[in-house]
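In this section we walk through a basic example: taking a raw amino acid sequence and producing a predicted 3D structure, encoded as discrete structure tokens. The instruction is simple. Fold the sequence below.
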Amino acid sequence: MSYTVGQVSGFAGVTVRTLHHYDRAGLLTPGERSPGGYRLYGEADLARLQQILFYRELGFALDEIAEILADPQANALDQLRARRRTLREQIDKLERLVTVAERAMEVQQTGVRLSPQERFDVFGEITFDLSYATEAELKWQDSEGHRTAMKSAAEHSKEDWARLMGEAARWREDLLAAHDAGEPAEGARARELAEAHRLHIARWFTPCPPEMHLRIADDFVDDPRAFALVVPPSRQRPGLAAYLRTAIAANARVRADADERSEGGSDPRDGCEHGYEHRVNPHPGPEVEGPVRDGSPPDGRAGASDGPDRPCDGPGSRREPEGKR
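The resulting token sequence is shown next.
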């Protein structure tokens, strides 16, 4: 028995246009034609169409399907195994995205509600990129630092965010001033700014040892979305992200040397760089990326801060914001 293209379209659930396309591509050419030249599909054609639709449902491209159907015994098993691996990877990714959505809902449910005007007042030009936050969540979801940062971010009040973002703005001005004045990226001033940034992360989000700080700095250079959470695009300079990354690396080296001297019993400074604790208004740095970049405020925006005028805190010291003591 033969069926017209319209009949096949009806019971197979595909459009006439799709059947015509399969014919032109050589994937499904009807075995018969009516006296008027219209396509007629026989039982063998319908069986082939069923196979095509099966592989399409699994996500195979038409050229892959054609290859499988050309020699099912040789090609089908390997292709199906490969597709199974791909589908499992997609399932894993979707499950992680579900986790992202659940965590986002938790933050929305426990976090501070801000009106559009309040968001602008608090965050200013610092913008939030949903794709970046999703990628960060997937990348760092198993990190203890990330979980701590998310918890801390969810606990911050509107006043906390306003305070840390204000501090961040002052730190950012210091960073821009140092860069524009030609201060060496590995010099004392740039290292102090790098250390201030690290201590801000520890104080407001999660402990941030130097090796974590370096990973964060790498992201600043590699992903413009990350650096935009620290310095909005309108304030950036060419090479500024690399400048900060170099300063952070230099600071990590100085701290490592200081730790070695401390372990040897000479000149312990609690991990602070010489003289840092005597500076006025060191302004700890802005918000971070890496494991902490997802520790964003309840509306998904990343926070930033430069700390108050105070001696150097240790990397794990986190001052409770006012109102939470």
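Looking at the output, two observations stand out. The domain at 3-70 is CATH 1.10.1660.10 (Multidrug-efflux Transporter Regulator; Chain: A; Domain 2). The chain has two domains: 3-70, 111-292. In the next section we compare this with other chains.
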